Structure formats: C-alpha cells, structure tokens
Amino acid sequence: MLLSPLLCHESLSQLVESGPHTALLASPHGSVVASARRPEGERDETNDDDDEEEEEEEEDEGPWLDEPERMRLLLGLASQWTTDESPRIECELGRLYIRSIPLAPEETLPANSGVPSIRSPYIGNFLLVLNGSSETPWTVLADKV
C-alpha cells in the first residue's frame, strides 16, 4: 500500500482548522505516518468568548511540553491504546480522541508465481489521534473522525 505524505498532511491540516489543535496519523507500533498542528497564533473558532481574563489565563498556562516531546507522548499514548478501550482520553495534554482506521487486507501472490516475495511487516490499521484542549467538546472531536 502506498500513501502520499502530502495528501495525508493536507487531510490532517483540514481537521485542525477548528476544534483539535493537533492531528496525528500513526501505526499501532508508534511510527508517525503524518501529522498536522494548528499554528500557535491561531485561535479556535469554536470558542468565540472574547473575555480578556480567559485569554490572560491561557497565556499564563502555556504548553508544558515542546513540540517534539508532545508528539512523542501522543505517539506513546496511541501505541498503548487498544480498540476495545474508550476512544476518549482526558490527560495533561487535554482531550485525546483515538480512532482505529482499518486497512484493506494484504494481497497475497499465488505460491507458484515465480516471483520471490519480500514481506514487510503487515500493518492492519492506522491510528488517528486528535488532540484538543480541555475545553474542546467531545462531540467536535468525534465529528472530525
């Protein structure tokens, strides 16, 4: 199966326009396939409260992790998640919504095809991880997946 990194990134970028601030497509083993993040200066349109006190509080909190550490933590959480668990996780990073995306079964060549087959490890699904703030409604995250 071939994936276009550009198309994956564009799709994830559309997901983070409003609602979640980070979207990640990963293998179940913790390898990043694609990721997108809303730029720090952009504000989520779903929360239109212009209360100055709230803005000052948000600035004081700030991200407690730099981007590379945040992505590693998201990958670690996603790789430990199983499909029989709830897709909703609330943690220090905010709200996470994880969805398994099943892939088509692997094509097998006939045994007598005469072509040597080099088998890469089969990946049966990808994980889509959406990360929003603690104020992002669960319904917004669920609608995005």
CATH topology (level 3) name of the domain at 19-38 and 64-104 and 122-145: Beta-Lactamase
> Cα distance, first to last residue?
22 Å
* Oligomeric state of shown chains: single chain
Under the CATH scheme, which class of the domain at 19-38 and 64-104 and 122-145? Answer: Alpha Beta
**Poorly predicted regions:** 46-62
Task: Give the H and E element order.
Answer: HEEHHEEEH
Beta content comes to 15-25%
Region (Disordered): 22-69
Biased composition (Acidic residues): 42-66
Give an overview of the whole structure.
Residues 42-66 have a biased composition (Acidic residues). Residues 22-69 are annotated as: Disordered. This protein is an alpha+beta fold. The chain has a domain at 19-38 and 64-104 and 122-145: Beta-Lactamase (2-Layer Sandwich), CATH 3.30.450. Helices cover 29% and strands 22% of the residues. The protein has a 5-stranded antiparallel β-sheet, sandwiched between helices. A hairpin with a 5-residue loop joins strand 1 and strand 2. It is elongated, with a radius of gyration of 18 Å.
In summary, what is this structure?
By secondary structure, the chain is an alpha+beta fold. Helices cover 29% and strands 22% of the residues. β1 (22-26) and β2 (32-37) form a beta hairpin.
List descriptors.
145 residues, alpha+beta, Beta-Lactamase, 4 helices
